[in-house]
């Protein structure tokens, strides 16, 4: 699947995202690019990933986030077998 992702169009999108300089600019850009539900879904997955890294249970995560167990499983699979993207970002966000 990574090969399907690595297109010139996707590269340009990622380069555009990297030009954003503030959270407010992210709101402006992503509201134009995505639907509100898509943004909320991405944010939910990110929250789920953080909770999984904290070793919270599927039931607790589902209850606190409203995510389905299928979504939680998909995020968990990414954490365990993915490209370490979540871990990279979380380590950079540490305060």
What does this protein look like?
- This protein is mainly alpha-helical.
- The protein has helices at residues 2-5, 8-18, 23-33, 36-53, 58-65, 69-81, 85-93.
- Helix 4 (36-53) packs across helix 6 (69-81).
Write the layout of secondary structure elements.
Blueprint: H1 2-5, H2 8-18, H3 23-33, H4 36-53, H5 58-65, H6 69-81, H7 85-93
Helix pairs in contact: 4-6
Keyphrases for this structure?
mainly alpha; 95 residues
Largest sheet: none
Shape: globular
Return the average pLDDT rounded to an integer. 94
Low-confidence stretches: none
Q: H/E series, N to C?
A: HHHHHHH
Find the structural class using helix and strand composition: mainly alpha
Query: In whole angstroms, how far apart are the ends?
Result: 33 Å
Q: Whole-number radius of gyration?
A: 15 Å
- In what range is the share of β-strand residues? under 5%
**Count of helix runs:** 7
Helix content: over 70%
> Strand tally, please?
0
Describe the structure in brief.
Helix content is 78%, strand content 0%. It has 7 helices and no strands. It has helices at residues 2-5, 8-18, 23-33, 36-53, 58-65, 69-81, 85-93.
